[in-house]
Write a structure and sequence with these properties.
Blueprint (H helix, E strand, L loop, with lengths): L5 E2 L9 E3 L23 H4 L5 H8 L4 E3 L2 H7 L7 E3 L1 H7 L4 E6 L10 H13 L4 E6 L3 H13 L2 E7 H6 L1 H9 L3 E5 L5 H9 L7 H13 L4 E3 L6 H7 L1 H12 L6 E5 L4 H7 L3 H5 L5 E7 L9 E6 L8 E6 L21 H8 L4 E5 L1 H15 L5 H20 L4 E6 L7 H8 L10 H8 L6
Helix pairs in contact: 2-11, 3-5, 4-16, 5-6, 6-8, 9-10, 11-13, 12-13, 16-17
Length: 451
């Protein structure tokens, strides 16, 4: 196995269960609160948004939850996904580090997002839902839910953050190819969108605002539920097929990771990749587990761990998380999927308790790393995934300087085929970095709900 470049599982290795880290955490998560009453949410409060199966998964304390066979059948279209040893990149970097990456870009939509889109559409279909409303940043989530809705015969309405709607037209076309209806957010279709447009007609939009529009859409129609691609417990639960496969593949490679790295915006791909390793962390096998976020949306490295609204219009549940404030309006960076104001409660709690680390990186650095990786490994990464690659590049350089051999594993959460305009801006010297001003963060945090 000394010259293997990829480690492939068969469909027989496809996980039969999702892993629920809440069963193993030595501390409880603070309960989500109702945005109107600020009292702990009950199942009835979530019923207008989600089917009961997903609500029960959201609060479950069971360690393992069975994956329905109908969902596993769709998973088989692309899962298990490959684990690669980045031998050519190691050589180009002249590093003693051993670098592995899990590649989620082989899914129909080109990212990790269908891992939760498929079960969410399935459970909604069982519940009699006819239509799903959602938001999307860069478009990976929207295209994944559009695909899943097509599989299960549901209508799909996507509110796409305007800066991405305009800058990533092929993502929109992909969603429409799958049958979804897509509008730029803020849009005139909802009260939240109209209010935002009245205040700022040229608003670039934000994930928080797009969530407000999608939630409003769902609660105003009896045939519609809301679907979220990150942040919530059940979303991270579904993504744990990633980490479970990685553990098997590293065993095939006879590799024991010293460091696990993933990009993080709301927490879905990082959670799915890293959470299955948390039991080892709790038992004393300490690894560096690093969540990498953009310097322009630094919710973990500069935000506050506090209760906050999940959306700009304060319609979504209030959750305890690292946040920049619900009215945070991010800079128009190309990693649109990482422009959320908050972080998943599970990821936030792990960070608060010292079980994981967080780093923030700037936009030009991540494209420099992405191009280095692409020229050796051949895969053009999505800008989101390039955040993880940037940290791996830095760590490989540290290993070279110290003469230290480390085993580093990262999650390549999606391809960048629809992000070539971003690469063009970098290669032509037009790209610039954005750092969210400290005074803006302080002003936004001053408007957190008083819980």
């Amino acid at each position: 196995m000394s010259h293997e470049s990829k480690y492939l599982l068969t469909e027989a290795d496809l996980p039969h269960q999702w892993y629920n880290v809440l069963a193993d955490l030595p501390f409880p998560l603070d309960p989500p609160l109702h945005p109107g009453t600020m009292q702990p949410l009950g199942p009835a409060d979530l019923a207008p948004l989600f089917p009961m199966d997903l609500i029960l998964q959201e609060v479950s304390q069971e360690r393992h939850i069975d994956i329905p066979e109908a969902v596993r059948d769709i998973y088989r279209l692309w899962r298990p996904t490959p684990l690669y040893r980045a031998r050519r990149w190691e050589k180009a970097l002249d590093t003693p580090a051993k670098i592995y990456y899990k590649y989620e870009g082989v899914s129909p939509s080109g990212s990790h997002k269908p891992n939760t889109a498929v079960p969410q559409a399935y459970y909604n279909k069982l519940a009699g839902t006819k239509r799903l409303a959602t938001e999307t940043g860069a478009g990976q989530w929207g295209s994944s839910l559009a695909f899943a809705c097509q599989v299960f015969g549901l209508e799909c309405k996507v509110y796409m953050v305007k800066v991405s709607y305009e800058g990533k037209p092929y993502r929109r076309i992909m969603m429409e190819t799958y049958g979804a209806s897509v509008v730029p957010s803020p849009s005139p279709d909802t009260a939240a969108g109209r209010a935002a447009l009245a205040e700022t007609p040229d608003s670039p939009g934000s994930l928080g605002l797009a969530i407000s529009e999608a939630v409003e859409d769902a609660v105003m129609r009896d045939d519609t539920h809301y679907s979220l691609g990150s942040v919530l417990n059940h979303v991270l639960l579904h993504q744990t097929v990633i980490g479970q496969e990685v553990i098997k593949q590293l065993d095939m490679a006879d590799a024991d990771p010293d460091m696990l790295v993933g990009c993080v915006g709301g927490g879905s791909n990082f959670g799915g990749f890293a959470l299955p390793f948390i039991p080892d962390q709790l038992k004393g096998r300490k690894r560096q587990i690093i969540a990498v976020e953009p310097a322009a949306a630094p919710s973990m490295t500069q935000g506050k761990y506090a209760y906050d609204y999940g959306d700009t219009a304060r319609m979504a549940p209030i959750v305890k998380m690292h946040t920049l404030g619900h009215d945070f309006m991010p800079a128009p960076i190309h990693a649109g999927g990482l422009r959320y104001h908050g972080m998943a409660p599970i990821i936030s709690a792990l960070y608060e308790h010292g079980l994981i680390e967080a780093r923030a990186v700037a936009q030009r650095a991540i494209f420099e790393a992405a191009i280095s990786f692409a020229r050796s490994e051949g895969i053009i990464p999505a800008p989101e995934a390039a955040h993880a690659i940037s940290v791996v590049l830095d760590e490989a350089a540290r290993c070279k300087e110290a003469g230290e051999t480390k085993t580093i594993v990262f999650n390549l959460s999606g391809h960048g085929h629809f992000d070539l305009v971003s690469y063009d801006r970098y290669l032509s010297g037009q790209m610039r970095d954005f750092a969210y001003p400290t005074e803006s963060i302080e002003a936004s945090l001053a408007r957190l709900p008083q819980v």
